[in-house]
Amino acid sequence: MFQVDLNCDLGESFGRYQLGEQEEILKYVTSANIACGFHGGDPSVMRETVKMAIANGVKIGAHPGLPDLNGFGRREMAITPQEGYDMVVYQIGALQGFLMTFNETMQHVKPHGALYNMAAKDPKLAEAIAQAVYDVSPSLILFGLSGSELTKAGEKIGLRTAHEVFADRTYQADGSLTSRSQKNAMITDQEQSVAQIVKMVTKGVVVSEQKTEVPLRADTICIHGDGAHALAFAKYINETLTKNNIIVDAICKLEVENEKS
């Protein structure tokens, strides 16, 4: 029996700007990556998203990004590893404060956007982020692109590490995600997306844009909560995985089941 976590980026609204249908999406995902105010989110949005996730039994993680609201954290910035460390510690702390008011624990940390992609390729930045997570709490699970420098850094320092794959993104032959600047970066067809997901979970491979099979590990699947059809997509993915006899549950619960078996 195959099993996988289904995570979604949430809490990315701020001020007057509202993104996604959070409350409904939370019915179909098992882990929520909550923005911490740098690329999206604000204090009120963070609190409300934490509250909704708890109400739906969804495990919570910090989603730290670059300080770039205008670019939604998707534009690269020249930062040092120390700056990356500081940004991650700061943002985990912001979310941790809200979790404490609900007597809830944090499950994981997943960098956002450009910070995520930079850490996937830059060993020094990856090590700094992994160190930041470890220093806050060694019990946290680090989410990173499958087979990337970030997952390697997490495993090296002794963190529980979840290799992440994407439901709506295409891949390159080196295992990296196709840049959003390319017109073929996103998968908009539900059938194509789900077929890719099922293959990644059950076969451990993805077909790249260069038509090669790239090996990977799929511990958790990301869907984006700000997409035009995010809610329908989340529901469809959850239902299809279940129909394919794939257990969908939070990564921390899946790890417990693995230890028991």
UniProtKB/TrEMBL annotation:
Taxonomic lineage is: Bacteria, Bacillati, Bacillota, Bacilli, Bacillales
Annotated Gene Ontology MF terms? 5-oxoprolinase (ATP-hydrolyzing) activity; ATP binding
Q: Which UniProt keywords apply?
A: ATP-binding, Hydrolase, Nucleotide-binding
Kindly indicate whether the keyword Cell cycle belongs to this entry. no
Q: Which InterPro entries match?
A: Glyco_hydro/deAcase_b/a-brl, LamB/YcsF/PxpA-like
Query: What EC number(s) is this enzyme filed under?
Result: 3.5.2.9
Source taxon at top rank: Bacteria
Gene that this polypeptide is encoded by: pxpA
This chain belongs to the protein called 5-oxoprolinase subunit A
What chemistry does it catalyse, as a reaction equation? 5-oxo-L-proline + ATP + 2 H2O = L-glutamate + ADP + phosphate + H(+)
Provide the family line. Answer: Belongs to the LamB/PxpA family.
| A Pfam family recorded for this sequence | LamB_YcsF
NCBIfam families reported in the protein's UniProt record: PRK05406.1-3, PRK05406.1-5
What functional role does this protein have?
Catalyzes the cleavage of 5-oxoproline to form L-glutamate coupled to the hydrolysis of ATP to ADP and inorganic phosphate.
The GO biological-process annotations, alphabetized, read as: carbohydrate metabolic process
Q: How is the quaternary structure described?
A: Forms a complex composed of PxpA, PxpB and PxpC.
